[in-house]
Amino acid sequence: MNEANFIQRIKDRTLRVGVIGLGYVGLPLVMTFAENGFTASGFDIDGGKITAIESGMSYLSHIPDSEIRKAVAGGKLTATTDFAETANMDALIICVPTPLAQNREPDLHFITDTAETIRPYLKNGQLVVLESTTYPGTTAEVLKPILEADGLKSGEDFLLAYSPEREDPGNANFGTSSIPKIIGGDGDAALKAAEALYGEIVVQTVPVSSMEVAEAVKLTENIFRAVNIALVNELKVVFEKMDIDVWEVIEGAKTKPFGYMPFYPGPGLGGHCIPIDPFYLTWKAKQVGAETKFIELAGEINTAMPGRVVDVLQEALKSEFGTVLSASHILVAGLAYKKNVNDIRESPALAIIDMLLEKGAEVDYYDPFVPVIPNTRDHAALAGRKSIEWSVETLGAFDAALIITDHDDVDYTELAAASRLVIDTRNAMKGQRQDSVIIRPA
Fold first, then answer.
1. What is the CATH number of the domain that holds 187?
2. pLDDT tens for each residue of 381-391
3. Angular region, 393: left φ>0, alpha ψ -120 to 50, beta rest
């Protein structure tokens, strides 16, 4: 293939970019290409997403409708469920989910299904980049053989690279274009092509020596976070027994200008990355005869946190009011896994609601970003439940409220004033007690 021509087409914006998977990674990415003058197409099996984009509507709370409308109206953004159209793309970027199976083994079927789907339309000169988080070796050992099955060869007929996504939905300080991009290629030509492409839309490209290194970088980033969150969750439990406020400890510790980075306790891990990605390395490590004790211990601690929240609630109800959980009406304040987004993937709130229901409690939730609970793989029974309307009268009807997500626009002072008991897992109250009992478990 003509590498120089490929790079020149990037520079003059005649290169067509296709992004496969229009979720929390793919939609911002295809939008960024469109906003930077590329003709960009989004591909997804979910027709609802395609209809929304064509109608100029966003289904992600941190992306306004106006941005979608502008990109579509300008002719730079299209979306389709027709994967035959991938034949008209010069670069294909795969942004599909990589969940865990029930036994905590990697579930790569979205990657393999995508590869099988686009293989008949793969053509000479195309660049294919995988962004999905996965274990080292996936791109070379799983994706590449599928793409080569009809005779085209990576490095000769098409180019293959891996560049892990680094999206942080709802982060006002860092979006797709302002986050440095790690890139590993299947050969020098693929690396240069991917660097040239991403270099037009991000602040910095960071080339590494191989696709396996790039895959390992992403896992390392999220393992670092998972382990440190587990550490502060454990410290929270220890300090609580010493009558020490872990939030105050962290505020003090983070004043040190070196050697410390603040992490915060919570009700458990959520999102698609931190609860899942570390176990991709755990699985791969076992294949090569290595152990990942820190990762597995962190997983145990973080997975136990929703249960601890429920235990603290039960104890508080009994000690403060002499009531039992099975006779109580509980409000879960916040369903999203993090503040100011509508993303409920792996949210600890869902596990907490299930646990409360199993113990016989009546449960409702409030979340301005999640008006209705969608269907999820692990919590299908909760699908269709609706957020309550926020009012002092409504809040006062509950026996206790659990603050699980600390959205900025929620009036926690009003919640405290209206509630008999508040269990604050996010330090949203920041020391306010007023007329309510406020407990902060990890």
1. 3.40.50.720
2. 999 999 999 99
3. alpha
